[in-house]
Structures
1.
Amino acid sequence: MKVLLVRHAETEWNQRGIIQGHKDSPLTVRGAQETAALLAALASYPIACVYASPLGRAWQMGQALAGHFDCPLVAHTALKEQAFGHYEGMPSAQLRDEYPYEAEALFAKDAAFCPPGGESLAHASQRIIDFIQQQQQTAAHQTLCIVTHGQVSQGVLALLKEGNIDNFSRYAQPNASYSVFEMTEGQCITLRWGIATHLRTLTLHK
């Protein structure tokens, strides 16, 4: 089974550096441009189905992809972003100023750290890994697209690449970037991650 792991396009809170988690914000103008660039970049993939987080920003990307490829679109709660609990709606700069230890643990050091009222990255990432492995049982020879979120993608990619989540901060996945991997018997056998070459022109003209 081949999987394309896609991050949603830029939102207003992404642009302003506000922690989203299970909260949402509208796409920016740039986000719409990123979506169009991603659709063009993925044109050669024979995507059979798109699975998306039901959170608005990911669902919009899922709708665009499913419409482009004329394939089914399925929402699944397992694909949601990590829940950041009480930190949701807070500027990340404020979190770093007021709670520097917690901010470092959350974004760089400790996948087991659980924000107050939220969930750990380790837990959030494992629910997506479990979802991917479940799909392999019914779609072993298909190409699937999974639309999810930035923080949790880092944990998933670390688990697929290294077999553990410790180095999750290495696996940044920019808005509207994608990763490609193949799964055989529940194991990842190839992986290209954080592909964003289709966004270069947009970056130059931001």
2.
Amino acid sequence: MPGRKQFDVGGALDQAMRVFWQRGYGDTSLDALGSATGLGRGSLYGTFGTKDALFRQCLARYVSVYGVQYEQALTAHPGDPVRAVEAFFDVILKRIADPSVPVGCLIAQSAAQSPTLREESSTVVRGLLDVQRQRVRTALADSPADAQTLDELATFVVAVNQSLAVLSRAGTSDAELRSVARIACTTVADTLARAASKHAAQD
């Protein structure tokens, strides 16, 4: 329409995502979102709905970028679950070290603030953690370990991922973060190796 202001919706969503990522949901104001996107409140509401609705769209945007990378890493080494987990942490550490994005992880930031989120948004965050856990669990499946061990390892890997995000926001060095990831991979490898030895002994 003539005279109607045009803007890049995808670009505005990316900017809003960065604000939520940097500040967290509770500390993200409409003024901050407007300043980052260049949109007034009316345009924000008209385009994205409420702050809560915009937040969920930002979560989806985040997953569309990084979730794909996690999936690719975890599926790139069929038959080698340890290498898959190593690749998963490689992607995470590269994101953390990327100076062009906020420190940490939007999902980890949001999970920490779950008590302050609306129920629908809190459910979405929990669901995203479940998806991540299932991806890891699938990558570990090609192993002789029993289901309970694999379930526990998948939860452990996701917990380490979330811890890396929190530590990075606290200023932990890249070398220290890589040490944490390395020890986590060793734990996965040792646990799977013990399972393989037990399985072989039973044959």
